[in-house]
Amino acid sequence: MINSPKLLVKAALLSSCIISALSGVAIASSSDKDVTPGFNQKIPEEIMTPNRVETRIGELNFYDGIPTDETLTKVYDNLDFVRGIDVFLNFIPATSVEGIRLGFKSLGVEDSNEVLVFDNLMDSNPLFLTGNTDTVYAGAMLDLEKDGVTVVEIPAGAGPGTLNDAFFRFVVDMGAPGPDAKKGGMYVILPPDYQGDLKPTKNGMADRGSDTRATIMVGDKEQKVWIAQSKSYNNWLILRGFLKDGKPDHASNMWRTGLKIYPLADAKNPKKMEFTNGSGKYFNTVHANDYKFYEELWHVIQKEPVSFIDPELRGQAAAIGIEKGKPFEPDARMKAILKDAVAVGNATARSIAFKTRDKSAYMFEGKQWFTGFIGRDYRWLKDGGNGGRNMDARTLFFYLATVNTPAMALQVPGVGSNYAMTTGDSKGEILYGEKNYKVTLPADAPAKDFWSMVAYDPQTRSELQVPGGSKYPSKNNKRDELIYNDDGSVTLYFGPDAPKGLEANWTETTPGKAWFAMLRLYGPLQPWFDKVWQPSDFELVK
Length: 542
Hints:
By secondary structure, the chain is of the alpha+beta class. The chain folds into three domains: 12-45; 107-277, Immunoglobulin-like (Sandwich); 354-540, Sandwich (Jelly Rolls), CATH 2.60.120. It is built from ten helices and 22 strands. It has helices spanning 5-30, 69-90, 92-106, 144-147, 249-258, 292-303, 311-319, 332-354, 391-400, 526-529; strands at 52-55, 58-63, 66-67, 114-117, 136-143, 150-154, 160-165, 170-175, 185-190, 214-218, 221-229, 234-241, 260-263, 274-277, 417-422, 437-441, 447-456, 474-476, 490-495, 506-508, 516-524, 539-540. The chain has a six-stranded mixed beta sheet. A hairpin with a 2-residue loop joins strand 1 (52-55) and strand 2 (58-63). Helix 3 (92-106) packs across helix 6 (292-303). It is globular, with a radius of gyration of 31 Å. The protein starts with a helix and ends with a strand.
């Protein structure tokens, strides 16, 4: 407490000075010439929008931050355009499965008891994303909405087999990389909306060799089965059988006599299996690259449950007019924008697939070979998910290929398969069909089962069709009688002209067209994973 009169006077004077000083600050602040016009303070520039902005879509104009009508038109056209591109890039997996379903249907293969088997291998007649010429494919479409819980019986001796859902997500492996480990067995597939007592079993690579099966009633018998659940109604089953003595007969017979698919409810009296030979037939399984792409996607969305994709993806599709239970009827403006968007989306996918800018894709230092499985994660997650999903990696894979399985990404010696692709020669130039090239594979190729090299067409991403009529644009160390070099290596030749005396090592190409190559190793071994064994680049033969 202040009792002295002198001290009271001094205190009063001090208070007066402080008040005057503070008042001066306030007055100075409000009269500061840096105050933003129209405001009482200086507003940070980074939160303001100028009345005129130059962008890649042209000049954008605003009145005090509110867009003009002309700018609204530009911005909304651009927004719909961008969303159309996003839908194309992000839904390639879905339309690719739909393309396969439609292709199978065109051959009369539609119900689950109907199987397309390539008795004489897949040749260059069908349009099928990077199909191989080296294994005997057996494929079927499962409709879990129509059939409910479905049983798949796999014969012993089956090579790599996989069930993928309608977004090309992995459901379960079968055969060599599956839990049956090539011994065969019974698999039960649950629909996405299944509410019964059956529960998925452990079916992963780590479970191979241990019996994780459940015991259930199949018909009137107790059976031990592996159980998996899909997120979609439509599912693609694709199985591969290996050649025996370089011939497909054994594998073809294995599928025709040992593969069984039927609804669990019909197990006591299943429909007879029907097999259609796909060898030598033309049919198309490749998704559209034009406006029809969106129509294909609409059909997928109508078929599948809402839970088939997450709200983020559902929102992308809905933003351009594709929703479950609603017609897809864009007006003239929107249709024109989507035609433009799919053209740019397709160009983007082709750039990512054929000339990726992701340096981690390239497998060997200084060489052109790259992997289609960037990051070695079948979900395309970066750093286990910490880096999110590698969208470009997913686009690269599904624009060029089919079948999604961990077995293609994991480094397990002797199990599954690994691939390497190249779209250019040693200088990075396009591989031209009118030019001759050679590529050398060192001795002791690290493939327990076999290796192959296949040439593909960049337009269709399917096996290359050639003027000479060769059905198989490939070489296979188990099927072909190749001529090896003295050191055990083998040099393969690609071009319009067969090298004299080395015709056995030659694959014909088509003048006036480009092509790209894929090296497959079935049962890859440690030297491949360690990168101590490397193919050469393609070299121009002059």
